[in-house]
Design a protein that fits this description.
This protein has 209 residues and is of the alpha/beta class. It contains seven helices and six strands; from the N terminus they run ββαααβαβαβαβα. The chain folds into two domains: 2-46 and 98-207, Ribosomal protein L4/L1 (Ribosomal Protein L4, Chain: A, 3-Layer(aba) Sandwich); 51-91, no CATH class. Helix 2 (30-44) packs across helix 3 and helix 4 packs across helix 5. The two termini are 18 Å apart.
């Protein structure tokens, strides 16, 4: 599959980018995509939730009323979960929600997501560029020239560029990542995926079967 390489003005440079069919032209595996997205979102959870159980509360351990003769249920502690201010029964505890996913499944999921975007003609290739200083206005102009203004955009860089990242972070729906950090969730969440020309070779190395 070939795509024209555009410049930041949205013009065809005359060069062609060859997209590897093993990455952009496979039969997508929906279950692999589901597992990788689930793994990514689980890893974003901080897992710091905590409630106090009866053994962790500060309070008297005195038996609050006699066992028999009150006409009500027996009660041995003011920290009983049935009472207001008592400890919570089986409350949440800090935990790690992350789970292991095989490397081959992750690669299959990313290839499947990219194949979906290629089928939808939502993939563009642009000449690698850098921004000398962070300017949101300049980045927005580039998006407009590429015909992707106002869309959820994923831009994949060949090398980390702090100024490019700073220029994009104030625009809603725009995500800029180096190719090494490309993930299935960001691919599927974007309406358009723009690759720097120099990132395609690195992508093939990372996602080769």
């Amino acid at each position: 599959m070939e795509l024209p390489v555009l410049n930041t003005s949205g013009e065809d440079t005359g060069k062609k980018a060859q997209l590897n069919d093993q990455i952009f032209g496979i039969e997508p595996n929906d279950h692999a995509i589901y597992l990788d997205v689930k793994s990514y979102m689980a890893a974003q959870r901080r897992g710091t939730h905590k409630s106090k159980e009866r053994g962790e509360l500060t309070g008297s351990t005195r038996k609050i009323k006699r066992q028999k003769g009150t006409g009500t249920a027996r009660a041995g502690s003011i920290k009983n979960p049935l009472f207001r201010g008592g400890g919570r029964t089986f409350g949440p505890r800090p935990r790690d929600y992350d789970f292991k996913l095989n490397r081959k499944v992750k690669k299959l999921a990313r290839r499947s997501a990219l194949s979906y975007k290629a089928q939808d003609e939502a993939v563009k290739v642009v000449e690698s560029f850098k921004m000398e200083q962070p300017r949101t206005k300049n980045f927005a102009e580039i998006c407009k020239n590429l015909g992707i203004n106002g869309q959820k955009l994923l831009m994949v860089m060949d090398q980390p560029n702090k100024n490019l990242y700073l220029s994009s972070r104030n625009i809603p729906g725009v995500q800029v990542l180096p190719v090494q950090e490309l993930n299935t969730y960001e691919i599927m969440n974007a309406k358009a995926v723009v690759f720097f020309e120099g990132s395609l070779e690195t992508l093939e190395k990372h996602l080769s079967a």
